[in-house]
Design goal:
Layout (H helix, E strand, L loop, with lengths): L11 E4 L2 E4 L10 H5 L2 E3 L2 E4 L2 E2 L2 H14 L8 H14 L5 E9 L13 E8 L7 H6 L1 E10 L16 H12 L4 E6 L4 E4 L3 E6 L2 E5 L8 H12 L4 E4 L11 E6 L3 E8 L3 E2 L4 H14 L4 H5 L1
Parallel strand pairs: 8-9, 8-15, 12-13
Antiparallel strand pairs: 1-2, 1-7, 3-6, 4-5, 4-6, 6-7, 9-10, 11-12, 11-14, 14-15, 15-16
């Protein structure tokens, strides 16, 4: 049985300072964000009723909006309180939270300084992005034909809705080809990230990851780097060329949705075996968020 569409569910969504019935959270068709991508968002997981890294996510939403010349009329503390209020109203313990800010319908055209900035927060029960079996086995990544853009051409360090268009296209291509997700290179041909997650490689016990100079330095990415360093692993942030993937023993993704997910294949050329580093960091991340499952015991 398929899940109900997101506009037809029970519960409440926080919009512009108050909780409204889920089905009543509506926008006009001439909303600026729908036409020009003037929207920023966050993805947050809740574990046991507690949103993970809520302060950091709330602050990043404000930062992303500022980059898009949008002034959100709430502080990070107010956004965090609204997130907790929304979780309680929907009686969700373990789930996914989507704060989003957008320009409204007061002005239509490329300029939109007169458009009101709106904020909404929704949440729902959502299982792990990849199944436990896939996490333990490792997922397969498709090489996207699209490239992460030059920072001089797009606001690449904002979590802006418009930047995800190529993620949707790449994910569709990956699924049609029988893969789980896609891996991007950047405009220079360097390894960048997956459609919604950062990527790491293990070379002889050292963990290497691309320098986030044209994509998000993910909150989960930073968390996992800290966990790795506490374990004594050396973590190297550097330029990684695609051909260097051939020398890596392990590969994994990190992100709010992906958490820590091993990769077993990139395209039909690069193969990896999820090993000690992947299992250790999966276990440490699960322990950090309060989850105990087979992935944790496997480490």
């Amino acid at each position: 049985m398929s899940a109900p569409p997101f506009d037809d569910r029970d519960g409440y969504i926080w919009m512009d300072g108050e909780l409204v019935p889920w089905r009543g959270a509506k926008l006009h068709v001439l909303t600026h964000a729908l036409h020009y991508g003037s929207s920023v968002f966050e993805g947050i997981r809740a574990y046991g009723g507690k949103p993970f890294k809520l302060k950091e996510h709330s602050e990043r939403l404000l930062y992303s909006a500022e980059v898009l010349d949008m002034k959100i009329p709430y502080t990070a503390e107010q956004l965090a309180d609204a997130t907790l209020e929304t979780l309680r109203a929907n009686n969700i313990s373990d789930g996914y939270i989507r704060p989003v800010a957008w320009r409204g319908s007061e002005q239509m055209g490329v300029p939109a300084r007169s458009a009101t900035i709106h904020v909404g927060i929704g949440c729902w029960v959502w299982p792990q992005y990849f199944s436990l079996e896939a996490r333990l086995k490792g997922i397969r990544l498709f090489m996207s034909k699209w490239r992460r853009p030059d920072p001089a051409t797009a606001p690449v360090h904002a979590k802006a809705a418009g930047l995800y268009m190529i993620c949707t296209l790449s994910k569709h291509d990956a699924e049609r080809a029988g893969y789980d997700d896609a891996l991007f290179l950047d405009w220079r041909g360097h390894v960048a990230e997956a459609t919604g997650a950062n990527v790491f490689f293990v070379y002889d016990g050292e963990i290497h990851t691309p320098t986030p100079d044209c994509f998000l330095d993910g909150i989960t990415r930073r968390t996992v780097i800290d966990l790795a360093k506490k374990r004594g692993y050396k973590v190297v942030e550097r330029t990684i060329m695609p051909e260097e993937m051939a020398d890596a023993q392990e590969c994994f993704l990190t992100g709010t949705a992906a958490e820590v997910t091993p990769v077993r294949e990139v395209g039909d050329k690069y193969k990896f075996t999820p090993g000690e580093v992947c299992r250790t960091l999966m276990s440490d991340f699960d322990a950090l968020v309060g989850r105990v499952d087979a992935a944790s015991s496997a480490a």
